[in-house]
Amino acid sequence: MCILFVVVGAILGGILGQLLSGVEALAGLMPYLVTTYPVFDTSPITVNLYVIRLTIGLAFAPNLMSILGIVAALLLFRRY
């Protein structure tokens, strides 16, 4: 359940950051909040099973708004 809270918090934080990036009152602050910081990035691996071709890759590049969303989600989880 905690992992679900963290993932949803990260997604909602990222979405909120993208929505707030158009607000002119926050124009000086938003470039710092929505810049992504790549933590890791694996190149995609393709498995050809002759009927299905499966490509799997994983990248984690959070921005500060998604990290704030994770923190908020963890605080909500502790209250839950």
Short description:
It contains 3 helices and 4 strands. It is of the alpha+beta class and 80 residues long.
Q: Largest beta sheet: what is the strand line-up?
A: 1-4
- Stretches with pLDDT under 50, minimum 5 residues: none
Work out the helix count: 3
Number of domains: 1
Spatial separation of the terminal alpha carbons: 10 Å
Label the structural class.
Answer: alpha+beta
Write the layout of secondary structure elements.
Blueprint: H1 2-20, H2 30-34, E1 40-41, E2 45-48, E3 53-56, E4 59-60, H3 64-79
Helix pairs in contact: 1-3
Protein name: DUF4321 domain-containing protein
Organism: Selenomonas montiformis
Transmembrane segments: 49-77
Tell me about this structure:
With 80 residues, the protein is α+β, with helices and mostly antiparallel strands. It has one domain. 50% of the residues lie in helices and 15% in strands. The chain has a two-stranded antiparallel sheet. It has a two-stranded antiparallel sheet with strand order 2-3.
What attributes does this structure have?
membrane; DUF4321; 80 residues; two-stranded antiparallel ribbon; transmembrane helix; alpha+beta; transmembrane; 50% helix; DUF4321 domain-containing protein
